[in-house]
Amino acid sequence: MPTKIVVTDHLEPDFIWETDQLRARGFDFTWQQHQLKFASEDELVPAIRDADVVVVNMARMAAGVIGRLERCRLIIRHGIGYDNVDLKAATAKGIRVANVPDYCPQEVAEQAVMLILAAARHLPEQLRSMDASVAKGQWDFSAVRAVYMMEGKKLGIVGCGRIGSRVLRMTAGFGMTVLVCDPYLPDKEKKALGIETVPLERVLAESDIVSVHTPLTDETRGMFNARTLAMMKPSAVLVNTARGPLVVDADLAQALRDARLAGAAIDVYDFEPPRRDNPLFGAPNLLMTPHLSWYSEESGWSIREKILEDIVRFLEGKPPRFTVNPDVERQG
Ligand SMILES: NC(=O)c1ccc[n+]([C@@H]2O[C@H](COP(=O)([O-])OP(=O)(O)OC[C@H]3O[C@@H](n4cnc5c(N)ncnc54)[C@H](O)[C@@H]3O)[C@@H](O)[C@H]2O)c1
Q1: Contact by Cβ (8 Å): 108, 241
Q2: Domain segments of the chain: what residues?
Q3: Taking the chain, what is the end-to-end CA distance rounded to the nearest angstrom?
Q4: Per residue of the chain (332 residues), what is the pLDDT tens digit?
Q5: What is the CA radius of gyration of the chain?
Q6: Which of 93, 104, 125, 178 is the most core-located residue (most Cβ within 10 A)?
Q7: Which residues are near ligand 1 (CB < 6 Å)?
Q8: Nearest 5°: CA angle at 106, between 102 and 107?
Q9: CATH number of the domain at 3-103+297-330, out of 3.40.50.2000, 3.40.120.10, 3.40.50.2300, 3.40.50.720?
Q10: Is 291 a residue of the active site?
């Protein structure tokens, strides 16, 4: 029986390149693609029930879905974070889960630095001021709040893995003191980066800018909530390019409205795209981007090549490049 590869939901316009590549290598396979990002479990299961390989972008691979898969041996998460895949359920069923951790760390770090600068230098206000000035025929800076230089201030980095460490290196020329919170960073990494880590409480209390780069886990979900946001300086800004649910949107919106936080720049949301009634809309001093930190022309192709490589490896009987549930091997 040919190997059945099914894509649950995708950003790519088509998969002609992938199917041509697999055909050219002589593999016996079928390829199906869907747009089931928002599908219920009952809609998702019939599409992937008898797939050998499932490639998933945003669709939820909950335990109820995974439990009903009949042949699946590999789930490839199209991206870095794999919080939409129930790892426990996959491991229990002997399904390997792969991600693509190395396709866009540079892009996300570049976006984080862009947002750090834009939030610190109040870019949206400067754009509004430009429009107002042109309309009036004279400079009008009335919409621009006080801007403080970044040099000499403190930058907090929460999560110093692939992306956080790039932000650390990129901002090295800003003349800021950097405070890093990452309780799991190996000593070897700390040494290589020339840093010591500090507790989250210290990052929150002292930083002028906090940039978040942790994965979404049970521990990090809701990490930025009313209690922790209140620990930040009222002059501080929060930048989140990691995962929406790390921040409680309603609490962040309230902190901005109450001027208990000077600003925020957010690329990721609890529900995506955010619904009209998301409390963040209309909150002051907030810059929102549409979960595009990952994007560049290079990364768009890089992820296709890397996923293709994992599919080829599967068809050749080899494990994927990165397995996120290595315990699966013990399941036999
Ligand atoms: N916006 C986007 O387009 C986009 C694109 C790619 C990745 N991401 C997200 O960026 C984030 C970082 O990705 P990465 O590749 O750097 O991951 P990574 O695994 O390389 O690094 C994450 C770091 O966070 C640390 N960490 C874990 N729990 C922590 C905690 N409780 N407190 C502090 N640190 C903690 C880990 O030790 C690790 O060093 C992920 O959430 C990922 O999903 C977003």
Answers
A1: yes
A2: 3-103+297-330, 105-288
A3: 22
A4: 999 999 999 999 999 999 999 999 999 999 999 999 999 999 999 999 999 999 999 999 999 999 999 999 999 999 999 999 999 999 999 999 999 999 999 999 999 999 999 999 999 999 999 999 999 999 999 989 999 999 999 999 999 999 999 999 999 999 999 999 999 999 999 999 999 999 999 999 999 999 999 999 999 999 999 999 999 999 999 999 999 999 999 999 999 999 999 999 999 999 999 999 999 999 999 999 999 999 999 999 999 999 999 999 999 999 999 999 999 987 65
A5: 22
A6: 104
A7: 80-81, 101, 104-105, 108, 158-164, 181-185, 213-216, 219-220, 241-243, 267-268, 291, 293-294
A8: 105
A9: 3.40.50.720
A10: yes
Report the amino acid identity of residue 285. N
Q: What CATH number has the domain spanning 105-288?
A: 3.40.50.720
CA of 8 to the centre of ligand 1 (A): 24
Q: Which atom of ligand 1 is nearest to the CA of 184?
A: 37
- Domains 3-103+297-330 and 105-288 are alike in CATH topology: yes
- pTM for the model stands at 0.92
